[in-house]
Amino acid sequence: MNNIIEIKNLQKHYDQGNIIALSGVDLQIEKGEFVSIVGPSGSGKSTLLNMIGALDQADEGSIKVAGNDLMENKDFSQFRSTEIGFIFQLHNLIPNLTVSENVQIPMIQTDMSDEEMVKRANEILESLNLGSKIHQFPTKLSGGERQRVAIARALVNHPSIILADEPTGALDSKTGDIILDVLKNIHREENVTLIIVTHEKYVADQADRTIKVKDGCITAM
Ligand SMILES: Nc1ncnc2c1ncn2[C@@H]1O[C@H](COP(=O)(O)OP(=O)(O)OP(=O)(O)O)[C@@H](O)[C@H]1O
Ligand SMILES: [Mg+2]
Fold this sequence. Notes:
By secondary structure, the chain is α/β, with parallel strands linked by helices. The protein has helices at 45-52, 77-83, 99-104, 114-127, 143-155, 173-190, 201-204, and strands at 3-14, 19-30, 34-38, 60-65, 68-69, 84-87, 161-165, 193-197, 209-214, 217-220. The protein has a single domain, classed as P-loop containing nucleotide triphosphate hydrolases (Rossmann fold, 3-Layer(aba) Sandwich). It is built from 7 helices and 10 strands. The chain starts with a strand and ends with a strand. Adenosine-5'-triphosphate is lined by residues 14-15, 19, 21, 39, 41-47.
């Protein structure tokens, strides 16, 4: 067994326990798997992704990701920058930084030189057909281009896990297809574990496995 993610009875409450976002999730994901997560709005999908990426901590249960116990009381910024690539629905690019500078952000925490950071950022942007946009600002780009910059930023440190929260949700279907193809290629070529939250059935169906979340529980795998 080669699970990169092991979650047992994971619980997450908000608002002093009035909101139960996750109510006992059990989940194992193997290294290199492509998994989609579906479920109604408010069912806990983003919460689950945030727990896996150590953006937030659970209240109860256990969660181990790439050999790290995420219930420990410590700073997980090193874990995040080396193991995790996040792609958010609204891509969260910083408007007053250029495309290349946005992609360099995750490398600031590494010991790379400025020169190496620029080289790596521009290489990955070129591989995503954004070589002509490296000096452009995000506000001047199309939605699909912005999402590709967000993918470049997620990939720049060679993460072992990519967490994508509705990466195609804000795009038209043709642009969404291009983004999905980019992610599928990365999954295939780099053996990275890919987890995509989506509302779209055709996106979910392309994964090796679909996980259904309802009321903070996993109802089907
Ligand atoms: N920071 C927070 N504070 C309080 N409640 C929160 C917080 N984040 C999420 N919730 C609540 O937790 C529940 C799960 O939210 P979550 O964002 O995980 O849902 P989701 O499945 O991602 O929904 P969507 O498909 O709309 O993105 C919801 O009831 C939501 O209102
Ligand atoms: Mg969500």
